[in-house]
Amino acid sequence: MNKLKFGLVGAGGIAQAYAQAFNESECCDLIAVVDVRRDGAAALAEIFGGKANNDYKKLADLELDALIVATPPVTHPEIACFFMERGVPVLCEKPLTTNVADAEKMIATAEKAGVLFTMASKFRYCDDVVKAKGIIASGVLGDVLQFENAFTAKVDMSKRWNSQQEISGGGVLIDNGTHSVDIIRYFLGGIDSVLVVDAGGTQGLSVDENVKMFAKTKNGVTASVDLTWGINKELPYFISVYGTNGTLHIGWRESKYKLNSSPDWTVFGGGYDKVASFKGKIENFAHALRGKEELFIKPADALASVQVIEAAYKSMNQNLWQPVIEKTMAAK
């Protein structure tokens, strides 16, 4: 079967992982890349032997099977809608948008055009995360009592667009927190309310740099999230699940679980593999386009991630628990 032809808008740091993932894929080809920095697009295009341009509208002249949007969040609606209106399915990087209204517009555009559309959130495609979901669903850990997630690395964000409010929509909460929200919803279902505390920063950023978030799910489980760009905590695990019958950890280099009735840990994974996760993104989208798989992240999940983050910022600004209003809408 012929490989599906993808275009990529955005040649920043994340694009390098996409290029590697396409090089390893047996069902997808990256044939063109666009970036406002033409030299950046050209350098990336050399890696996979495709075309480069500095105007995303030029990609409309190519016969693309799908498009990946990997630009700053404020640009996502314009670029994604441009292609979907022309019949091109879109895989859009997280954060999907900076506000709920734009997310709804993108999903409505996809529905009207009859094309596939979703958000790319890499941890949903991590093999250890998928295995952990199965372990928890099997009931071996019993009822989930607590859920913890941590993305805690010290990163200089002073010169990156991620810390520019008008481009990113916020700081670490919208950036890494979008991953957290999607992970919580994947494991525990819908989120009912959130409480977020801004714990200050060390880099003098105008956006949030170090936050704590608590989320109550519709099933009554409380999840805690630790997000920071300013502290390197060097934690071995980024997800921990505590159940009535045991404990499970998903780590950067190892994932394991242990039952209360046993002194031994059972290792079920080798940790987070970035390129493999990116490969999972593009191949799940490709298989969904061919009707072979369901999307791992459906448009409703993408919209919910924006709704929860919007509520999270309201909570942080008011220092109060904030309800999450998850309005649903029809989407392909």
- Can you give the mean pLDDT? 95
Number of strands: 15
Query: What class do helices, strands and sheet pairing give?
Result: alpha/beta
Question: What level of helicity do the residues show?
Answer: 25-40%
Biggest beta sheet summary = 9 strands, mixed
Unreliable segments of 5+ consecutive residues = none
Number of helices: 9
Determine the strand fraction and express it as a percent band: 25-35%
The first-to-last residue Cα distance is 25 Å
Rg over alpha carbons: 20 Å
Shape: globular
Largest sheet: spatial strand order: 14-13-12-11-7-10-9-8-15
The string of secondary-structure elements, in order, is EHEHEEHEHEHEHHEEEEEEEHHE
Detailed description of the structure:
This protein has 332 residues and is an alpha/beta fold. It has helices at residues 13-24, 38-48, 76-84, 100-113, 127-137, 165-168, 172-188, 274-289, 299-318; strands spanning 4-9, 28-34, 51-53, 66-69, 90-93, 117-120, 144-152, 191-198, 210-217, 222-228, 237-243, 246-251, 255-259, 266-269, 322-323. Strands 14-13-12-11-7-10-9-8-15 form a nine-stranded mixed β-sheet, with helices on one face. Strand 9 and strand 10 form a beta hairpin. Helix 4 runs antiparallel to helix 9 (299-318). It is globular and about 60 Å long. The two termini are 25 Å apart. The model has no long low-confidence stretch (mean pLDDT 95).
Top keywords for this entry?
six-stranded parallel beta sheet; globular; single chain; 34% helix; alpha/beta; nine-stranded mixed beta sheet; 332 residues
